[in-house]
Amino acid sequence: MPEDLNTTWGRLLSQRFLRQAPLAPLLTIRTGGPARYLLEVRDGQEAALAWVTARSLGVPVLLMGRGSNLLMPDEGFEGLVIHFGADYAHMEVAGDRLIAQAGVSLKALAYFAADRGLAGLAFAAGIPGSLGGGLIMNAGAYHGEMAQVVEAVECVDQQGRQHTLTREEARLSYRHSLMMDEGLMVLGATLRLTPGSRDALYATMAEFQALRRDKQPLAWPSAGSFFKRPPGYYAGALIEQAGLKGLSIGGAQVSEKHAGFLINTGGATTAEFLQLKDLVQQRVMARFGVALEPEVRIITNAAP
Ligand SMILES: Cc1cc2nc3c(=O)[nH]c(=O)nc-3n(C[C@H](O)[C@H](O)[C@H](O)COP(=O)(O)OP(=O)(O)OC[C@H]3O[C@@H](n4cnc5c(N)ncnc54)[C@H](O)[C@@H]3O)c2cc1C
Fold first, then answer.
1. Domains assigned to the chain
2. CA of residue 132 to ligand 1 center, whole Å
3. Any residues with CB less than 8 A from the CB of 219 and at least 6 apart, and which?
4. Global confidence as pTM
């Protein structure tokens, strides 16, 4: 007989959830308070069960990958964080297909593919996200994006039903996907790659890395480009032309190296990042009449 909700919850609570788990070390921007509960995903079915159970009991849930596009509240997250990280990162090759779990890092995925002579993921080698987060956001760089390589996405809906979405059904577009709109949990994906030379792929990835090191403030914690590219503009260029490079509030600063990045120069809080974000948006709007929309996902404890 299946367990009832409270029994399932009690079991997860006593056996699998970490309590008051610090989140800042899991986030590339290094701010935010602890999660009331944290589940390190080892098994997709268990993650789905935890998700559905929490939702049925009214406990807020955040699905998290490598934490490279998230800003969490300073007071902590008053619910359950389901973390798809290194414990849920299996990958394997079948012909020209790569089948991987959501927690695998995009960098590991790109090198794994290159080592097996499979091309298509070089663009992803320098994006510090997970496969799951990369699919939700349709991560991309240097003329590549996840949409180009996805064949199928394994998802769970909020009722716990499992679905396999085709690339068309997943509707990946600029920093956007059906999974984002529908609030689906991504468990993994099948990527369709093409034959390529390992050496050439390594060279391309090294070139992309060098371009990043040259242009981006990689020595500082950040969540990457803070704002989406507004149609017809580059967010970084607008911020720079508005004279905002180096502008700071507490430990949060508009990077001197790349104005699209808001960096943590040490001890910043999420509140400081939010104030800086508002100021940048106001100044760019006043100067150019362009609304900057955050690319970073800003999480709050407010009821949805
Ligand atoms: C230095 C730096 C450089 C970057 N460069 C780029 C770049 O070139 N291109 C680019 O596109 N992005 C870039 N980013 C942003 C970021 O790496 C990407 O958006 C990445 O796809 C986020 O993946 P993640 O696993 O870290 O997701 P997270 O930050 O953990 O989460 C992002 C969103 O995805 C959701 N999510 C995560 N995992 C799952 C899952 N399994 N199921 C359902 N929902 C999930 C979360 O709820 C959240 O809404 C950069 C970030 C940094 C810090």
1. 5-83 (3.30.43.10), 89-201 (3.30.465.10), 217-298 (3.90.78.10)
2. 8
3. none
4. 0.97
